[in-house]
Amino acid sequence: MDIRRADQIADTLEQLVFAGEFQDGDRLDELKLAEQFHVSRTPIREALQVLVTSGMAEQIPRRGVFIRQPGPVELLEMFETMAEIEAVCGRLAATRMSDQELDALADANDRCQQAIQASDHDRYYSENETFHQIIYRGAANSFLEKQAKQLQNRLRAYRRIQLRFRGRLRQSMSEHSEILQFLRDGDADNTARALRGHVAVQGEKFHQLMASLKR
Amino acid sequence: MDIRRADQIADTLEQLVFAGEFQDGDRLDELKLAEQFHVSRTPIREALQVLVTSGMAEQIPRRGVFIRQPGPVELLEMFETMAEIEAVCGRLAATRMSDQELDALADANDRCQQAIQASDHDRYYSENETFHQIIYRGAANSFLEKQAKQLQNRLRAYRRIQLRFRGRLRQSMSEHSEILQFLRDGDADNTARALRGHVAVQGEKFHQLMASLKR
DNA sequence: GTCAATAATCTTGTATACAATAACTCTGAT
DNA sequence: ATCAGAGTTATTGTATACAAGATTATTGAC
User: Fold this and answer.
1) Do B84 and A144 touch (CB under 8 A)?
2) Residue B210: pLDDT over 90
3) Is A40 near strand C, with its CB below 7 A from some atom of it?
4) How confident is the model at residue B208 (pLDDT cuts 50, 70, 90)?
5) Which domain holds residue A32?
6) What is the structure's pLDDT at B215?
7) Same-domain pairing of B149 and B175
8) Best residue in B141, B145, B146, B195 for a mutation probing chain A (most A CBs within 10 Å)
9) Residue A140 phi/psi, 5° resolution?
10) Binning pLDDT at 50, 70 and 90, where does residue A1 land?
11) Shortest CB distance from B141 goes to which of A77, A92, A143?
12) How are the residues of chain B apportioned to helix, strand and coil, as percentages rounded to the nearest 5?
């Protein structure tokens, strides 16, 4: 619903970057992009500013803007940060979530389970994100919630990869149930611990995957 | 060291916003700013994009960009988030900081103490930030470190206000010493707890101040 | 053949021009 | 006096123009 062409282009470019259409270090050529989007350089430049500010690209004055895909080390750091932020959300949510929100969480969990039984991976990814977002919301801190969603968004592509590990889906579901129970009990510490582990293992799985690919 | 005028302007505007030169809802007039900075609208617009992307201003298409100062509720949320992020940094730092880093932390703490004895508030603020930044660094996660620094930066102005509370400086120092000791002991849980409290109390003090001003 | 230096080309950053929409003003009717 | 509506002015968003620095190509010396 953006009126500004520049905003639409920024969104599209963001999607393309997340989708891995660009390699790390690729230069975003203003003229080529302008041609591609059928606009002048002006809206392209404004879109590039957005990418740079949000950390997805780097700007070198008089040289251009270059996309910056996180390397293995940065990805691990991001997963660790995500794990800790989720743990924080869980800790707060344990004492703040309403019964309604807990029911919504249980529903989301059920839908995850259904998606697995239907072998509908896309739907599982989607419902899984919903499950976690309900917890962010449950922390009753919209600033924190925004931060969590932002990071979740940035890690989406990599989360998908690691979820393909054999047996991971089943284990992930059992962790979900455990988390749900801790939240129901209002057990802040255990919720935090469970969520931290639940997300941190994703980083570890990803690490394993990277290591196995290197060989 | 920016070559781009637009970047310099973005920095300046950011400073001005943090310094409270603008009221919430103020429109940033492109023409006036262009005149003020002796440039055309182009670099101004690129600077405004940066402010909008980093959340300091809101853009309404075809209407302009309006600065968004956080209200009391959002500030409390930001302080709470800061407290939790610092706690996370502390938890990780407890098992990851080198002896060198611990010594640097002790030095920073000493300099805080000296600044207080010299009644040099500006220097205290500065050294205090250093103290905390060493802990962020100690978490050995540069992504997390960047996030922490960013939030620290956004809350700077408000932290200054609340530190004026009577007796707060002394108490703050004793908390620092406690945190340092927990880090030395490698006690992750207690470091996290102490840091969370240390920062959370800032939010509470700020809240008290707001409430007293409302009357 | 390789390297350095200079010229030509490209690309970025800023300024200006123009089109479209929003805000404002002024008039006239009730 | 108040409100509606047309016309005017302002402001945004995009396109184009131009200047300056970066990149590439070319030429010439060794």
Assistant:
1) yes
2) no
3) no
4) confident
5) 5-67
6) 55
7) yes
8) B141
9) 55, 45
10) low
11) A77
12) 75, 5, 20
Domain count, chain B: 2
CATH of the domain at A167: 1.20.120.530
ipTM of this predicted structure: 0.88
Same domain, B60 and B105: no
The tokens for A163 are: 């979820």
Residue B98 sits in the same domain as residue B178: yes
Minimal Cα–Cα distance from B113 to chain A, Å?
31
Q: Indicate if B41 and B77 belong to the same structural domain.
A: no
Least confident stretch, A17-21, A78-82, B12-16, B83-87: A17-21
Query: Which helix (H) or strand (E) element contains residue B126?
Result: helix B121-138
CA–C1' distance B5–C14 (Å)? 9
Q: Are B112 and B128 in contact (CB under 8 A)?
A: yes
pTM equals: 0.90
Last residue of a domain, one of A52, A67, A82: A67
Indicate if CB(A63) is under 7 A from strand C. Answer: yes
Q: Give the nearest partner residue to B78 out of A7, A77, A143, using CB atoms.
A: A143
Shared domain check, A154 and A58:
no
A127-148 pLDDT per residue, tens: 999 999 999 999 999 999 999 9
- The verdict on A137 and A48 lying in the same domain is no
Alpha carbon distance, N-terminus to C-terminus of chain A: 46
- The CA–CA distances, whole Å, from A112 to A79, B162, B207 equal 22, 45, 40
Residues 6+ apart with CB under 8 A from B140: B92, B93, B96
Asked if A120 and A48 sit in the same domain, the reply is: no
Q: Do A14 and A99 belong to one domain?
A: no
pLDDT at A84 over 90: yes
On average, the pLDDT of chain A sits at 92
List the CATH number of the domain containing A46.
1.10.10.10
Distance between CA atoms of residues A209 and A211, nearest Å: 5
